[in-house]
Predict the 3D structure of the following.
Amino acid sequence: MSLYFNSDHEMFRQTIRRFVEREINPFVEQWEHERCFPGHALFKKLGELGALGVSYPEAYGGAGLDYWYNVVLAEEVGRADCGGVPMAILVHTDMATPALAEFGSDELRQRFLAPAIRGELIAAVAISEPDAGSDVASIRTRAVRDGDEYVINGSKMWITNGTQADFITLLARTSDEAGFKGMSLIIVPTNTPGFHVSKKLEKLGNHSSDTALLAFDDLRVPIANRIGEEGQGFGLQMQQFQKERLIGSVSAVAGMEKIVAMTINYCRERQTFGKALIENQYIHFRLAELLSEIEALRQLNYHCTRLLIAGHDITKEVSMAKLKAGRLVREVADSCLQFHGGMGYVEEYPLARYFRDSRLLSIGGGADEIMLGIIAKYAGMIGKRR
Ligand SMILES: Cc1cc2nc3c(=O)[nH]c(=O)nc-3n(C[C@H](O)[C@H](O)[C@H](O)COP(=O)(O)OP(=O)(O)OC[C@H]3O[C@@H](n4cnc5c(N)ncnc54)[C@H](O)[C@@H]3O)c2cc1C
């Protein structure tokens, strides 16, 4: 019985659960092997299900529902048999499009948000650069005005959906002001001359997700492609990051629960020294401990969701959730792999993939240390007291 989800949320949950079981899990091995999932085919199906714009305005084809539906989507795709495809989907729904949906002009939303919700266009978000990841304020990609166009030069690193995206939400410098000032968020269609995928990156995990180094070479887009006012980009992206971090943590909880449940089953079946592994107090205590921490994180995520829906600033709480999620997935992956013995180390079992894929959470979307810095600042330990 849930305090947060009504029967409509639960129906949506069943729809996404079936979709993951039928349209994603049977193909995970192949997509991981091919180092890419078929984004356009999969997103079209998700669009037809109404999964890509649950809380976006109906005027653009969204369902106009509450953010708990996004939470349900993240929980259900988070139960998939890999980390790559869920990440690609959630980048599209909750990381690359929130600023566009909230602050984009009507025309920009008709051109990009509506087809993204239908699953016809794939979105990516491009903030990080080869020389600027954690330190977003030091990005160098420039968008210089020329008449009614921006001329964009620079590069972006680590871009999820980077080889398949039809448009990217780009953070670029639009003035000479230093630091946080003078940046804008701009929608860049990837079929524009001057857009290049310089390199598809080989990674430790999330193999089914394409990650790319991108380059912009005198690329021209209309000034009308800017989201919000010129110079507001950093602030808009910081807001967008809050949903990214929340959804990352929500999806991690679902994945952890699935892995712990699988490990409990395995330890019930596996016999050593004449009894089931689960009978060892060390093992069932450790799994009980992990379940308790997962539940605590779930409740923090739900608290953040309630605050978000009520219009509060969730920066402090969501940074705590993202930090905890990044650290907890590493503990869960390590303990569950350990309790599978050799079976945890082979590719026949999902543990090895989970171990690789989950490692990203402490780095992507703001590293653990960046979350610690934000929490310390909000707690008044450093910087301006709030
Ligand atoms: C698979 C993958 C997908 C990604 N997808 C995207 C995407 O779609 N779009 C996008 O824009 N970016 C994306 N990223 C980039 C990601 O957000 C960055 O990797 C992350 O922000 C860290 O930046 P960095 O890699 O440049 O590390 P750096 O900034 O060089 O930091 C390295 C390490 O130093 C430590 N550190 C940094 N600063 C501090 C500090 N002040 N105090 C203490 N320690 C510190 C942290 O441990 C950090 O991990 C992705 C990354 C990966 C690996």
Residues 233-269 form the longest helix (37 residues). The chain has three domains: 7-122, 124-230, 234-378. The first strand starts at residue 123 and ends at 126.
